[in-house]
Amino acid sequence: METATDPVCLEGVSVRFGSRKVLRDLTLTLQSRRVGIVGRNGSGKTTLARLIAGLIAPDAGRVTVAGVDVCTDRRAAIRTVGILFQNPDHQIIFPTVEEELAFGLRQLGRSKAEAREGARAMLARFGRDDWAERAVDGLSQGQRHLVCLMAVLAMEPRVIVLDEPFAGLDIPTIRALRRYLEALPVTLIQVSHDIAALREYDRVIWLEGGKVAADGPADETLARYLAAMEEVDDADADL
Amino acid sequence: MLTLTSEIRTPYHPIRAGAKLALLCAATVGLFMLGSLGAMVAANAAVAALYLVPGRPFARDGLRLLKPVWIFVALVLAWHVLTHDTRAGLVIALRLTAAVALANLVTMTTRFDDMVEVVLWLLSPLRRLGIRTAPIGFAIVLVVRFIPVLLAKARSLIEAWRARSPRRAGWQVALPIALVAIDDAEHVAEALRARGGFDTE
Amino acid sequence: MERQITLIALFAALIAVLGLVPQFTLASGVPITAQGMGIMLCGTVLGARRGALAVLLFLALVALGLPLLAGGRGGLGVFVGPTVGFLVGFPIAAFVAGWIVERMRNTPILTAAFIGAVIGGIPVMYVFGIIGMSVTLDKTFAESALLVTPFIPGDLIKAGLAAALTASLLKARPASVLSRG
């Protein structure tokens, strides 16, 4: 059931990398609780994900999440939107789990003690109390994904952007992580090649060449997207 | 791969790298042996002429490569003006610009691969001492491969920091960057070993 | 053998990447680049010989025309400019830093690496740097020394970071710390 949530608004957003136009004059308002973004490699989905998280500045237009200009007001942005990247090894900064979870809380302004408390509380929520002192190095791939998720959740954002969050994991692990995600009351915006993951979503947007090719209920957009992908022959593959 | 070699074709590009380097050495030694203001002015004029032969855009690129030297030129001139020894200051400054500009000219007109060949050739006498030079050429290739990969990983980690903090990335990102770098090196070493490695020569 | 060569190449690349990190500015208004820390790390992590080789490899690439020095500088020009002394000092600094870490085998790595990084990265490197400046700018040693003193506090910070990083690497990836191998 769709519920009105904190809107993610893109107004006339364009992004250029050098001479290449990655996103063209995009205007979107995302208010569904579960939004999926599909598209081919190079379509601009990853750039869109980073825009919503406030990590890239648009060359034109504005991006706001729940009224916060996520690019210019970083202080408020980190309270509002979080992002989960594809590879935990490119995300985890600190050597122990507790430090990694506490980092975001410190950046939100909590004291060292409060941050430690918050980290432990998050670990308890997931039944991983014993992970506090553990070295991230010693954890498995799936466990590292969970650490990244907990680190983002600890900051209690209203919107979480997921950029291909399950790449490289085995099926049971994906299932378990998905269960955690689906139970969350926050808005999820997931960029994915995994169609199955997005079937249950409220709204799916298909990005093609930096523009919106289709936008609507999940089953509609996904059907159109899959049909189009069937039409693409080998010559147009990303090789 | 981004090198400093100019994409603008010059008449100097086809000249053999070894020859250009030898000329450069001779010219640099000469510059440091001459002491007169007149000689320095002449030298700079000659260098400027060399740069203008391929055209103004090329000369402008050359000027840009000289930017780091300007601050030293300014320092030297200021110093010497204050100590009432302007003439000596001008000699030093002009010698500096001529020497650096000449060296840059060689860099701008010589391909990276040709330079590597010269280096390996210069190192070849080492083989008589039992030192193998093949790994050196290989090491060069490896560094060129590592730099963009390392950069990308560093950027990802810095981005991951910025996703959770309004502040610029701090010194703490140095460790995870070093770790992913070392792990990448392990994979490369493994791939090398799988393809025969160095010990099978 | 493969691991040693790849590590040497990796650290040479690391020096380059550290040169691309944006400069910090100290309270005194002096800009510091992270590249010097890379030099120290080559010594403290790889040891004297291999650390020096890594730095020489880096310098070779700069000479060959890659813009790897902080600020995107490179090419043969930098070897005739006023900073040439520092470039000569780089591999020697790494060697000394590594030699100290190797010699102080029984001292905890953090201390040994700090001492190595400070001695290699500051007095050794600066002596060569100052000589180079004196020759190219036609100044006395003392006069050139004056020009570089503001950069020393930044280098102390870099030495501390290099030492901490070396110690962490010894814990996390002991096989890569060739200075204590």
Share of helix of chain A, binned: 25-40%
What is the general shape of chain A?
globular
Kindly estimate the percentage of residues of chain A that lie in beta strands according to DSSP: 25-35%
CATH architecture of chain A: 3-Layer(aba) Sandwich
End-to-end separation of chain B = 29 Å
Number of domains of chain A: 1
Oligomer: heterotrimer
Whole-angstrom Rg of chain A: 18 Å
Q: What does this 3D model show about the protein?
A:
The complex is a heterotrimer of chains A (239), B (201) and C (181). Chain A is built from eight helices and ten strands. Chain A is α/β, with parallel strands linked by helices. Chain A has one domain: 3-Layer(aba) Sandwich (Rossmann fold). Helix content of chain B is 73%, strand content 0%. Chain C is mainly alpha-helical and 181 residues long. Chain C has one domain: Arp2/3 complex 21 kDa subunit ARPC3 (Orthogonal Bundle), CATH 1.10.1760.20. Chain C contains seven helices and two strands. Chain C has a two-stranded antiparallel ribbon. The radius of gyration of chain C is 15 Å and the shape is globular. The chains are: A alpha/beta (239), B mainly alpha (201), C mainly alpha (181). Chains B and C meet through α4, α5, α6, α7 and α8 of B and α1, α3 and α7 of C.
